[in-house]
Automatic annotation (TrEMBL):
The keyword Transmembrane helix applies. Belongs to the UPF0060 family. This is YnfA family protein. The keyword Transmembrane applies.
């Protein structure tokens, strides 16, 4: 459980950093030299998701979505300097609850 959470958090920040590299280049007029770093960050994100213990990729990705939303709001606040409002926080909590249900729900063994 701790490993899965850590992998999801690391993946979220790798994905956000990679996407933000493109955003900074295309929307903020920053140097194109950010693009190779952004691509490396996005590749790291994809690799990290393969480390999640899950019998199905789609389930791992679905649960990751909730973590991504919460991490995006932390990025908004810490990197972009925009404090999330109560609706951002409420929405994030709802998504994290959904992610927890997906990850920790009791399931029958997978049948091949």
């Amino acid at each position: 459980m701790i490993r899965t959470t850590a992998v999801y958090i690391a993946a979220a920040f790798a994905e956000i950093a990679g996407c933000f590299g493109f955003w900074a280049w295309l929307r903020l007029g920053k140097t194109a030299w950010l693009v190779p770093l952004a691509m490396l960050s996005l590749a790291t994100f994809a690799w990290l998701l393969t480390l999640v213990e899950s019998s199905a990729a789609g389930r791992a990705y679905a649960a990751y979505g909730g973590v991504y939303i919460a991490a995006s709001l932390l990025w908004l606040w810490q990197v972009e300097g925009v404090k999330p409002d109560r609706w951002d926080v409420i929405g994030s909590v709802v998504c994290l609850i959904g992610a927890a249900i997906i990850v920790f729900a009791p399931r029958a063994p997978a049948v091949a």
